[in-house]
Amino acid sequence: MKIQTNDDVTLRDIRQEDITDYIRWETIETEWQLWDAPWLYEGRTPEQCERELKEYIEKLGRWVSEASEYSDSSIRSRFEIDYQGEHVGSCASYLIDGDCNILDGCDTTSLGRAIGICVFDPQYRRHGIATAALTGLIDYLKAHGSQRIFTQTWSGNERMIALAKKLGFKEYRRKDGIRQVRGGVYDGLTFELMR
Ligand SMILES: CC(C)(COP(=O)(O)OP(=O)(O)OC[C@H]1O[C@@H](n2cnc3c(N)ncnc32)[C@H](O)[C@@H]1OP(=O)(O)O)[C@@H](O)C(=O)NCCC(=O)NCCS
């Protein structure tokens, strides 16, 4: 299944050949880790990196085999992003609870669905890719019954905050000082889509 969001940006299911890109983004082109939940990556030992990479590759393999079984009507929780035919990122959605924490799997008591995005290679940033991809993802989620849509970041991620506001999100919940990044203390932010 493919969603053509504009002439340049397509959302599609994950494929086997994407795994090579993910290994590169995990091991060589890692700048995005400074911004996308950086607390998960800071201060890891080489052994931890190796173990987490192995687990991640296994998870990607599972996602590829699950995606190969999808029908057009299966509800997707993640998409790969192609820009002019090049694999440049991914976007995904997950359920959050009333306290804005991530919920595993399906839960009828969820507050709603949060969306996230990464354009891994900095050279592809500021080309309107995230705007197009998240607009496509929001339309997809609304068409599949999501009523409340959120996005989450931290107070040091100014690009993501500006992107959220541009898309029509408003701050919904701020958790003071819960994130420590590169020696600084930041707030955890949840935004809700108001349109
Ligand atoms: C945040 C991110 C997804 C934006 O992707 P992008 O494709 O560059 O975004 P777009 O080109 O669609 O820009 C959309 C808006 O984001 C904001 N933005 C993007 N880059 C910005 C920058 N360098 N400075 C300020 N605002 C910026 C602007 O509001 C911009 O709208 P405008 O161009 O009309 O001013 C991208 O920078 C990224 O992947 N960063 C690393 C991973 C990350 O932080 N993910 C979010 C985790 S919560």
TrEMBL record:
Gene3D superfamilies: 3.40.630.30. GO terms for molecular function: acyltransferase activity, transferring groups other than amino-acyl groups. Residues 9-192 form the N-acetyltransferase domain. It holds the Pfam family Acetyltransf_3. Signal peptide: none annotated. The keyword Transferase applies. Transmembrane segments: none annotated. InterPro entries: Acyl_CoA_acyltransferase (IPR016181), GNAT_dom (IPR000182). Keywords: Transferase. CDD domains: NAT_SF. It comes from the Bacteria. PANTHER family: N-ACETYLTRANSFERASE DOMAIN-CONTAINING PROTEIN, SPERMIDINE N(1)-ACETYLTRANSFERASE. This is GNAT family N-acetyltransferase.
